[in-house]
Amino acid sequence: MAKFFLRKKAGDRVVNGHPWIFGNELGDSEGTAAAGDIVEVYSSNGSFVGKGYVNPASQIRIRLLTRDKSEVIDDGFFYKRIKEAWDYRKQLGYVENCRLIFGEADQLPALIIDKFNDYFVIQTLALGIDIWKGAIVAALQKIFSPKGIYERNDVPVRSLEGMEQIKGFLSDPFDTNIILNENGLRFHVDIENGQKTGYFLDQQDNRRAIQHVVKGANVLEVFCYTGTFSLHAAQYGAKSVLGLDISENAVSVARRNALLNGYEDICKFDAVNAFDVLKLWVKEGRRYDTVILDPPAFTKSRENIQKAITGYKEINLRAMKLIKPGGFLVTASCTNLVPPDMFLNIINMAAKDAKRTLRQVEWRTQASDHPILFNVPSTQYLKFLIVEVQ
Ligand code: SAH
What we know:
Layout: E1 3-6, H1 11-15, E2 20-22, E3 26-30, E4 38-42, E5 48-54, E6 60-66, H2 75-91, E7 97-102, E8 111-116, E9 119-124, H3 127-130, H4 133-144, E10 148-153, E11 166-169, E12 177-182, E13 185-190, H5 206-209, E14 218-222, H6 228-235, E15 240-245, H7 248-260, E16 267-271, H8 274-284, E17 288-293, H9 305-322, E18 323-333, H10 340-354, E19 358-364, E20 383-389
Parallel strand pairs: 1-4, 9-10, 14-15, 14-17, 15-16, 17-18
Antiparallel strand pairs: 1-3, 2-6, 4-5, 5-6, 7-8, 8-9, 10-11, 12-13, 18-20, 19-20
The structure holds S-adenosyl-L-homocysteine (SAH).
């Protein structure tokens, strides 16, 4: 097995628990390694750091899988890690649906597995994990005997690893339109053509958090995707709910979700560009009791961070203007590069411009089936805030 040595200065972050090693953090090496091979990593003074997979084509040259020198990376390793991750989710109360593997936070860098009751959706986002797909699928078969496993590797980030974008069955074919249960509601999920893995599990606990701010309310949900927050609002006693999304496909699933749960009279959905209608409706003087905002990530690169800040400020400012005094704003951000304090600052700036006072109801993050590893700051990405808008 090839050995790689960290440069003197570069080692701290890695030695302290971060699993990524960038090309410029590596010094000497011994032996040869092909893309995807398991290699050993040592600090500059020669002490063992960990074992992981290497990809010379990637800026993230090595991702560590273990810090235990005696642990062998084989099929059994993946079975053990996935089993441990499942036991952890069960301990935290996730029985039916969960993000079973959240990459780095489960010591399986670049692997995502979502469990939608008996169905599993996988993303292998680095070459060194992709080559273990067979072992990962075998482990899922053994632990869960699932009804289906599907690969949603149609994601651009794979090109950074020299891989193609693909999607398809990793088990016998099955009907990829499934239904899942969440908080007493039922939702259609389109595993093949839905966004990301088909459903946003990271908000599953936050959807319950809106319970006390939607009762008897006229609710506007912007960026509603398949209407998950809208249907929760209806279940918690909203008088009316309007959900908006730019995707016709998402809106049509949202309408079907309303029917599925018997809330078609309360929940209406429209396919529109949120930026346009928010602006217009502020001008028209429309008012809502509660506005929910859950936009997509506004940037993945640092160069565009200012654009993301402007985007968040704009939609939150407009949302505040649409809220009656004493109403509520439910607002989220999944942009990894916008840390929690920056997000709160943006909301604060928006409130100043809107000349409104905010009173905090809840300040949350992603559901705990997406664990936050303190040594890997990027594992915390979701910000979720509920405020009273006075
Ligand atoms: N709240 C949802 C997830 C929202 S994801 C849930 O919990 O399931 C963000 C959504 O914003 C996507 O469905 C995307 O189609 C939509 N979107 C992106 N740009 C938009 C725009 N300009 N106007 C309206 N919706 C937009």
